[in-house]
């Protein structure tokens, strides 16, 4: 058994997020595994940029209220207990609702590919 003491919470980089996002690392696979697990905390209105994941991504919402959207589809509201799976290579974003915090666990097995930020106009449309 290994008890790993709490690591410092990291600020999400401005290249990848709009608004304030904080990340707590949970687990990193050892090669050849590329498993990455983290808890991601979004402040109200904060969201990822558009991006995709090699091997897809599973999100598990643990707190708050949020939004997810895949390119070419309508946005969906998400809440604690929801599990969102995005397939390999599918462009999407995820974030908090405008007036709520949101935390999700992220589980990935491959690198992300980052695109443009979600504009205020895209976000406004998503939360309607
Ligand atoms: Mn994602």
Structure explained in plain terms:
This protein has one helix at 120-126, and strands spanning 10-11, 17-18, 21-28, 36-42, 47-48, 51-53, 57-64, 66-70, 76-78, 83-86, 92-96, 102-108, 112-114. With 128 residues, the protein is mainly beta. The protein has a single domain, classed as Jelly Rolls (Sandwich), CATH 2.60.120. A hairpin with a 7-residue loop joins strand 3 (21-28) and strand 4 (36-42). The termini are far apart. Manganese (II) ion is lined by residues 51, 53, 57, 86, 92, 94.
Distance between the termini: 47 Å
CATH architecture: Sandwich
Which ligands are bound? manganese (II) ion
Level-1 CATH class name? Mainly Beta
Helix content: under 10%
- What name goes with the CATH superfamily? Jelly Rolls
Radius of gyration: 14 Å
Task: Decide which structural class fits the backbone.
Answer: mainly beta
Main sheet?
6 strands, antiparallel
- The CATH topology label is Jelly Rolls
Write the layout of secondary structure elements.
Layout: E1 10-11, E2 17-18, E3 21-28, E4 36-42, E5 47-48, E6 51-53, E7 57-64, E8 66-70, E9 76-78, E10 83-86, E11 92-96, E12 102-108, E13 112-114, H1 120-126
Antiparallel strand pairs: 1-3, 2-5, 3-4, 4-12, 6-13, 7-10, 7-12, 8-9, 8-11
Bound molecules: manganese (II) ion (MN).
Manganese (II) ion is lined by residues 51, 53, 57, 86, 92, 94.
Using brief descriptors, characterize the structure shown.
single chain, 128 residues, mainly beta, Jelly Rolls, 6-stranded antiparallel β-sheet, 3-stranded antiparallel β-sheet, 1 helix, globular, binds manganese (II) ion
């Amino acid at each position: 058994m290994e008890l790993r003491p709490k690591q410092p919470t990291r600020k999400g980089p401005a290249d990848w997020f709009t608004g304030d996002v904080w990340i707590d690392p949970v687990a990193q696979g050892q090669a050849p595994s590329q498993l990455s697990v983290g808890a991601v905390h979004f402040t109200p209105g904060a969201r990822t940029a558009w991006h995709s994941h090699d091997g897809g991504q599973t999100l598990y919402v643990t707190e708050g209220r949020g939004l997810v959207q895949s390119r070419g589809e309508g946005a969906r509201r998400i809440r604690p207990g929801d599990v969102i799976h995005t397939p390999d290579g599918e462009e999407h974003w995820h974030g908090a609702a405008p007036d709520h915090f949101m935390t999700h666990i992220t589980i990935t097995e491959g690198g992300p590919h980052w695109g443009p930020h979600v504009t205020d106009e895209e976000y406004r449309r998503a939360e309607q």
